[in-house]
Amino acid sequence: MTGLTFRKKAEPEERLDLSPLVPAQLAGLSAADIAGLKVGTSRLGVTVGDIFEVSGDDPATIRFEGGSPRFDRIGEAMEAGEIFVQGDAGMRLGRMLKGGRIVVSGSAGDHAGSAMEGGVVRIAGNAGDRLGGPLAGEMMGQKGGTLIVGGNAGARAGDRMRRGVISIAGDAGPDAGSRMIAGTLIIQGRAAGTPGRLMKRGTLFLCGGVEHLAPTFLDNGPADILILSVMSRTFAAGEVGSVPFGRQPMRRYGGDTAVLGLGEIFLPL
Amino acid sequence: MPGVNDTMVVNGVSIDDSFAEAFPMAGTAIQITAINEKWALEAARSMTGFATSVIACGCEGGVDRLLAPDETRDGRPGVRVLFFSFDAGGLEKQVTTRLGQCILTSPTSACYADLDAEATIDLGSAIRYFADGWQISKKFEDKHFWRMPVMEGEFLCEAKTGVTTDGVGGGNLLLMAGTTAQALAASEAAIEAMRRVPDVIMPFPGGIVRSGSKVGGKYKGMMASTNDAYCPTLKGVTKSELGPEIGSVLEIVIDGLSSAAVADAMRVGIKAVTDLGPQEGALRIGAGNYGGNLGPHHFHLKDLLP
């Protein structure tokens, strides 16, 4: 058996909802069944067969050859399996992911990893706004799993994050870690805006500095604590990979005291 | 010698046709690290103090081995410590009490799980309230840690560790010699070799027991009393297991995370004693049992010969 491959025929003329193309929903379907699945978001009734050439027969591994910023909701609520996207992904990549692995070689749109509960989302390029964050009206963002961005992230990455790890290799847009409930958010580049605003608990690493630190975060002084080296060693051996804070001294700020105040921001000394 | 059939002789050391009778126990392993080996050992010794016999101490514990920095979770020197008790509940109570009093309190220490198993007992999850609301839970890469602010800085402790019910307690060797010095020399040689076997501890002082016991006694309420059959000063006045050439007996008790580990430790212990020979060490090796009806694990000496 070979993995299912969706080869893009041409750039779609509308945004697509690719949430049906996950292993659990494709299991047992014939090639014709898959080609007939509706993925359009307009009255045109666009199907998989209109957009992709489909080959392979193992839905546990899904490959999109040729991505698009209009490919929305890839891997939504996936419980197990692997999805590879050669190119860009649209909005809500890996939203509510429960397990398995999604790898994107390009960039992803807004709400990537939104409210994910487990598994791994790896984006080689940039991510849009509200990485891991909740949709409007939802109480929690990311609840578990690991979300890795090789480039930059947009505004409010990790909004209302509850658990899990987000790692951003580049810079973060305004107000990363806003309203964090818990979890770990690592920004290796520079953080714009006022990160950590209204965070209750959780850990925010701002390895490349910060544009503005809210006055409701209180300086706890240099932090020579073991958890930094344990995290660094564990991440280096796992999905996240090398992080800078195991090697450089950090200063800890406790906050946001405008709310519960049990969160922490680490900045280089 | 009454009751003894010493048909085997290795390098001049007689080995009884007998067996050690051992019992199932719940066992666990943890990793203690510190800024250097000295402080890792201080913490480990403190935690495993008064943990020689489950009957009176609530658990049996000891150092399995030293850990190099590249073997520990945080890259510092460490010690692997094992604990055993009758059941997982009793084990958890002992381990968490000792964790709170001996590891949390020890300068620069940290504590991590060192046994993968489906069943777990609490470590940091049990003592986190010491931090009085300032404790921090961190979960990443399928690991869960508790961070507790303390006067020295921050105490880091993994939330839980694995527990196995395949543990074995009560493997043993009886080393019988002409003098106490010879019995001690044989015992020390055995312990030095047995400490290189993974997943076992010898929980008594220096790994050696000078006061082996039998079940019960003449006085009401005594769960154990001196093993008079192996007391050299009682030869002739009790039903002794000792011949006239034996002047001193020492025992080594072994607990392990598996039956195979206990057997391995006994095997290398017997080899070390027979290699030392009867001139400097023991004349005879035996093992303690209760007739075979109490414990399901029987370690026959004849199966463990070098």
UniProtKB/TrEMBL annotation, chain A:
InterPro entries: Formylmethanofuran_DH_suC, Glu_synth_asu_C_sf
Any Gene Ontology biological process: methanogenesis
Molecular function in Gene Ontology: formylmethanofuran dehydrogenase activity; transition metal ion binding
SUPFAM superfamilies with a match to the protein in the record: Alpha subunit of glutamate synthase, C-terminal domain
Name this protein carries in UniProt: Formylmethanofuran dehydrogenase subunit C
Organism: Jiella endophytica
